[in-house]
Write a structure and sequence with these properties.
With 280 residues, the protein is mainly α. 70% of the residues lie in helices and 0% in strands.
C-alpha cells in the first residue's frame, strides 16, 4: 500500500514543476518585451508536448508583431536621417496593413516634397521665377510646409522683380526711376543701392547739362564736381573734365596767339606738343 501511495504523489509534483517552468518562461518573455528586447523567444527545446506547442505559439505571436514593427522602426529611422526608402511592398493584414499604408503615404509625401523642391530649384536656375509647388496636393502640416516654401520664393521674387524693373528703366534712359515699395533687411539694402545708382546717374546727367550750357556760353573754365560722386562714376566725371581740358588747352593757346597777332604782337612759334587735329 505504501508503494501505491508514492506513485499517486509523483505525477502532481511533476505537473506543478512543468507548469512553473512554463510560467517562468512566459514571464521572462513578458519582461524582455516590456524592455524592448523583441528578439527574445521562448526556449521551446526545453519543453515537451502541449507546453512546447504553447510556447511555439507565443513565439509565433511575437514574430507577427515584431516583423512589421522592425520594418516600421527601420523606415522611420531612415526617413528621420533624410534617407527616403522605397515604399513597403511586403503583404500585411488588418491593422498591420494600415500601418504599412500610412507609412507608404508618408514616403509618398516626402518624395513629393523632394521632387517639388528640386523642380523649383531647377526653375530658379533657369530664371523661371513663376514656378511653384502645388500645395493642394498635400494635406495638413505638409500643405503648410509647401505653402511656406512657395511664400519664401515669392518673398524673394517680388523685390527682385521690382528692383529689376527699375534697373531696366534706367538702362533704357529713365534715370528718374526709383524703387518706392518698402522692403526689409538685404532687400532694403538692394533697394537703397538701386535708388542711389539712379541718383548718381542723374547727377552725372546734370553735370553734362551744366557743362554743355557753360561751353555754349564760352565758359571754358567750368568743370564738373567729381567729389560729389563715388568710385567709377566720379571717374566718369573726371573723364568728362579731361575731355574739356583736352579741348580748352590748345584752344586757349590759339586764342591767345590770335589776340596777340591781331594787336601786332607777333609771338614765338608754338612749341607745345599736340596730337591730331590740334597739332594741325
Amino acid at each position: 500500500m505504501a508503494t501505491k501511495r508514492k506513485r499517486k504523489t509523483e505525477a502532481p509534483t511533476q505537473s506543478r514543476a512543468a507548469s512553473t517552468a512554463v510560467f517562468d518562461e512566459i514571464q521572462r518573455l513578458v519582461e524582455a518585451t516590456v524592455n524592448g528586447k523583441l528578439d527574445e523567444r521562448a526556449k521551446v527545446d526545453q519543453f515537451e508536448g502541449q507546453d512546447k506547442e504553447m510556447l511555439k505559439g507565443i513565439n509565433d505571436l511575437i514574430d507577427a508583431f515584431a516583423a512589421p514593427f522592425n520594418v516600421t522602426a527601420e523606415y522611420v529611422d531612415r526617413i528621420s536621417k533624410g534617407d527616403i526608402p522605397e515604399k513597403i511592398s511586403d503583404d500585411y493584414k488588418g491593422d498591420f496593413n494600415e500601418v504599412k499604408n500610412n507609412l507608404n503615404q508618408c514616403i509618398g509625401v516626402m518624395n513629393g516634397l523632394i521632387e517639388g523642391a528640386a523642380t523649383m530649384a531647377e526653375a530658379a536656375g533657369n530664371g523661371e521665377l513663376d514656378t511653384r509647388v502645388d500645395a493642394s496636393q498635400f494635406a495638413g502640416s505638409w500643405q503648410a510646409i509647401v505653402q511656406g516654401i512657395n511664400d519664401t520664393v515669392e518673398g524673394v521674387v517680388v523685390p527682385l522683380r521690382d528692383i529689376g524693373g527699375v534697373l531696366d528703366k534706367m538702362a533704357s534712359g529713365d534715370l528718374s526711376a526709383q524703387v518706392t515699395n518698402d522692403y526689409q533687411g538685404d532687400y532694403n539694402i538692394l533697394k537703397v543701392a538701386c535708388n542711389e545708382l539712379g541718383v548718381q546717374l542723374q547727377g552725372v546727367q546734370k553735370v553734362l547739362d551744366d557743362l554743355q550750357v557753360a561751353i555754349v556760353e564760352g565758359k571754358l573754365d567750368v568743370r564738373g564736381e567729381a567729389g560729389q560722386f563715388k568710385g567709377e562714376i566720379a571717374g566718369m566725371v573726371n573723364g568728362i573734365n579731361g575731355v574739356i581740358d583736352a579741348f580748352a588747352a590748345p584752344f586757349n593757346v590759339t586764342a591767345e596767339y590770335v589776340d596777340r597777332i591781331s594787336k601786332g604782337d607777333i609771338p614765338e612759334e608754338i612749341t607745345d606738343n599736340y596730337n591730331g587735329d590740334f597739332n594741325e
